[in-house]
Amino acid sequence: QVENEDEARKEEAERLAAARAEIPDAAFEMSLADTNLKEYVFNLLTGAEYETVGDLMLAMKADPDKVRNLP
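Given the sequence above, the corresponding structure tokens read:
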């Protein structure tokens, strides 16, 4: 079972790395504060510790339901 868990972690890391490679570096340099998001949405995202557009894009690629299900 430990091998299965290690393999699952490795696959998840590879999946995240592949998703990260699709996102331009500039997105990780653009703060959500520099966008035209409504204040409610901005507060929701930053409260969930998304600070940059890249953070949000990566989260949407990795687990879109986690972002969509924010309160």
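DSSP finds four helices and no strands in the chain. Try to locate this feature in the token string yourself.
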